[in-house]
Amino acid sequence: MAEELIEKKAREGLAEPTLEKMRWFVKLMGADFGKRPVTDITPQELLHELQKHERRGRLETANLLRAFASRVFRFAVATARAERDPAPSCPLSRIISVIPPSCTPLN
Question: Residue 66 in contact with residue 85, Cβ under 8 Å?
Answer without folding.
Answer: no
